[in-house]
Amino acid sequence: xxxxxxxxxxxxxxxxxxxxxxxxxxxxxxxxxxxxxxxxxxxxxxxxxxx
Length: 51
Fold this sequence. Notes:
The chain is built from one helix and three strands. By secondary structure, it is of the alpha+beta class.
């Protein structure tokens, strides 16, 4: 798992594409869709969390 608080779109856009193509999960800290037009907290993981 990887977590970063404030990344700019140019920091995570390519990585998010690669992660999604590999069948993994990419989202924000607050379970929102990633906004590629402003900085946000990014979370990437191998699988969905078990609650």
